[in-house]
Amino acid sequence: AQSVTQLDSQVPVFEEAPVELRCNYSSSVSVYLFWYVQYPNQGLQLLLKYLSGSTLVKGINGFEAEFNKSQTSFHLRKPSVHISDTAEYFCAVRPNTGNQFYFGTGTSLTVIP
Amino acid sequence: EAGVTQFPSHSVIEKGQTVTLRCDPISGHDNLYWYRRVMGKEIKFLLHFVKESKQDESGMPNNRFLAERTGGTYSTLKVQPAELEDSGVYFCASSHANRGGYGYTFGSGTRLTVV
After folding, report:
1. Within a 13 Å sphere around the CA of B8, how many CA atoms are in the beta-carbon half?
2. Residue A37 pairs with which residues in a beta bridge?
3. Residues B54-109: pLDDT tens digits?
4. Does B43 contact A98 at a Cβ distance shorter than 8 Å?
5. Binary contact (A101, B41; C-beta < 8 A)
6. Which residue in B55, B91, B100 is closest to A44 by CB distance?
7. Contact flag A103-B44 (C-beta cutoff 8 Å)
8. What residues of chain B lie within 8 A of the CB of A99, using their CB?
9. How many other CB atoms are there within 10 angstroms of residue B81's CB atom?
């Protein structure tokens, strides 16, 4: 069975400050890891994904995430946020032998001017 | 290319009524998925089509939900009769057959409110 935990439901941060959105997962099989973003009134957009190789992955809009297998974590980071980063962020896993995604409950990021 | 399109974007219906949600996947994508997010909860898998066949419908909550994909193109998700707990955002996604499931494209979702 797979599960994803996003401990922070809401994260307020001032513009140009760094941010980290936390994600931990549990799985009995090997998984791929993803971060999706949903801007207001839009669909889910892929930010970045980890399939294999380097544990530090870079995505769009200056975001990056690091896969830590021992801690089963995949935290999302950005060194300096902008107002336009205000959105809801979802961490997800997919077993590497299946098609179904398992999502966390989401983290609402609010960037304060 | 056009993205995944979902209709309607919002729907408000009364308990006991019927609602049909539609999803138009990206042209040529054989895989089509439905997911649902109930307020404040995680996004949960409902079912997966490969072309017109249901590959996995393990996430469908009960028999009030009926999904179809006639001809392997667009898909519909009907809720009949709707209950209050069916409120949420319904997402559709599609992917190319040869790319497996790791590279989905999601639609904007349909926000369903049952009152």
Report:
1. 9
2. A45, A89
3. 999 999 999 999 999 988 899 999 999 999 999 999 999 998 865 544 568 899 99
4. no
5. no
6. B91
7. yes
8. 31, 33, 48, 55-56, 95, 100-101
9. 14
Q: What angle do CA B47, A39, B97 make, to 5 degrees?
A: 35
CA triple B9-B53-B78, angle to 5 deg: 35
pLDDT tens, N- to C-terminus, chain A (113 residues): 889 999 999 999 999 999 999 999 999 999 999 999 999 878 899 999 998 888 999 999 999 999 999 999 999 999 999 999 999 999 999 988 878 899 999 999 999 99
Q: Which residue, chain included where needed, has tokens 């309607």?
A: B8
> For residue B28, how many C-alpha atoms fall within 13 Å in the half-sphere facing its CB?
6
Whether the ω angle into residue B25 lies within 30 degrees of 0, i.e. cis, is: no
